[in-house]
Amino acid sequence: MSMRPVDLCTPYPTFGILTRMMYGGRVSLFIAVAVVACTVILGATVGLIAGYYGKFVDMVLTRVGDIFMSIPPMLLAICIIAVLGTNFFNLIFTMTITSWVVAARMVRGQVFTCKNSDFIRAEVAMGAKGPRILFNQILPNTLTPLIVQETQHFGGVIMAESGMSFLGLGIPYPTPSWGTMIADGRAYLTSAPWVVMAPGLMLMITVLCFNFFGDGIRDVLDPKNKD
Fold first, then answer.
1. At a CB cut-off of 8 Å and minimum separation 6, what does 1 contact?
2. 3-class SS at 126?
């Protein structure tokens, strides 16, 4: 019995491509949610502490952030993955380490704006201590810009995960990923271009949708866009 051309020129059949593409999307979304959640927790914590206590604490945390910002994210990710190895948790840890500084700086700036406000002075006058002021008063006022920023960060995380998987530094085999599917399909660009085009198109559409979603969240939550 003759075999279809697609079976001869692709590493897996057409339905296999669809299945791997759908499963790879689930993996990418899981990693994106985990990385954004870890980034928010770490970045918000560092930003709150640095902005509220200031002086020496702020200087130390800011310098640590500057060190991370001075290293190219991909180079830092390659070094961490080379030491820790490739698996889900190491990939999430690596992508969190390379992206928490932006969230921390944004929260730090919001804290500087809020901590000299009249309602914070009123809390201090009533005997409120640092942790209560941080988490009950200042943190809620930093959530709106933080949510907007990290919603737009989803697309960047998915792109970064696909790029690392493309280089062999992301999701290990046999778990499928859009990046690994694109890397595997390079040898079949002339005979079966859909092997690369399918995951590439899904990657483009997903990142575009998250960018539009982030813009919509910004328009809804940003008070500057309200009449």
1. none
2. coil
Burial of 210 (C-beta count, 10 Å sphere; 0-12/13-18/19+): buried
* Residue pair 33/25 in contact by the 8 Å Cβ criterion: no
SS3 153: helix
**Sequence-ordered alpha helix ranges (H) in the chain:** 5-9, 14-53, 55-70, 73-84, 88-97, 100-114, 118-125, 130-133, 139-166, 178-184, 194-221
Taking the chain, what is the end-to-end CA distance rounded to the nearest angstrom? 69
Map out the domains of the chain as residue ranges: 15-221
Whether residue 164 contacts residue 31, with contact meaning beta carbons closer than 8 Å, is answered with no
For the domain spanning 15-221, the CATH number is 1.10.3720.10
Q: Could you give the CA distance from residue 181 to residue 175 in angstroms, rounded to a whole number?
A: 10
Mean pLDDT by 10-residue block, N- to C-terminus, for the chain (227 residues)? 40 66 84 90 88 84 86 82 81 87 87 78 72 78 82 85 83 81 82 83 88 81 59
Q: How far apart are CA 117 and CA 107, in angstroms?
A: 16
65, 126 contact by CB (below 8 A): no
C-alpha distances out from residue 109 to 68, 141, 151, 179, Å: 18, 11, 19, 35
